[in-house]
Design a protein that fits this description.
heterodimer, A: about 70 residues, mainly alpha, two-stranded antiparallel ribbon, 2 strands, B: about 140 residues, about 0% strand
């Protein structure tokens, strides 16, 4: 799944650690999400969307269906 | 629940394992010299106390981890349980077949081996998912 978490985070001028603190997760988890190595659960995805005041589909985009 | 601080967790585990080492060095040699069954049992089981405390601390750390951390702990633990299960079954069959003679003290190796396989698997997983080398904790 592609996501725009890094873009929204950088727009706020936050470090990965600061975003992690807002979401009560580890910095490594933010790093893994931003690099597309880990797709967050629905609750965490909604938390991210709410934090950045975005709709969830504007932050996460499924990969092209084969 | 607040996340467990990695530094604090490592310090607590180190302190408790230091207690374990002290017990093994100074208390364990007394077991063989103790006469009463009750006291000998107590002395023999005393070193398990710090190990149980470490397991409780580790469980608390996992419970308070985020979803990715919990997932990696679960995978690492599953791999470790799988490896130890196969090793113990192989050892058991070889012992029954009298191919390999083992004493009861072989059971001492179950927990350290479990921790070792779990730790190595976790380091590999963290490296694959986050790109970081994390040898020390959550």
């Amino acid at each position: 799944m592609k996501n725009r978490v890094r873009a929204f985070r950088e727009a706020r001028g936050w470090s990965q650690g600061e975003l992690a603190e807002h979401l009560d997760v580890s910095r490594q988890t933010i790093n893994a999400i931003e690099n597309g190595k880990y797709d967050p659960s629905l609750p965490l995805a909604f938390k991210l969307a709410r934090l950045f005041k975005q709709r969830i589909e504007s932050m996460f985009e499924p990969d092209e269906e084969r | 629940m607040a996340r467990v601080s990695k530094g604090r967790y490592n310090l607590q585990v180190l302190a408790i394992m230091a207690v374990y080492v002290v017990l093994m060095l100074f208390e364990w040699p007394l077991v063989g010299k103790t006469e009463g069954l009750a006291l000998r049992t107590l002395l023999a089981l005393l070193p398990t106390l710090p190990v149980v405390v470490v397991i409780v601390l580790a469980a608390r750390m996992v419970m308070r981890g985020d979803e990715l951390e919990q997932r990696m702990h679960l995978i690492a633990l599953s791999v470790a349980v799988g490896v130890i299960s196969v090793a113990s079954i192989v050892g058991g069959f070889l012992a029954v077949a009298k191919v390999w003679t083992v004493g009861g003290d072989v059971l001492f190796w179950v927990f350290p081996l479990l921790c070792m396989v779990y730790g190595i698997t976790r380091v590999v997983l963290v490296r694959r998912v986050t790109g970081a080398w994390d040898f020390w904790g959550c």
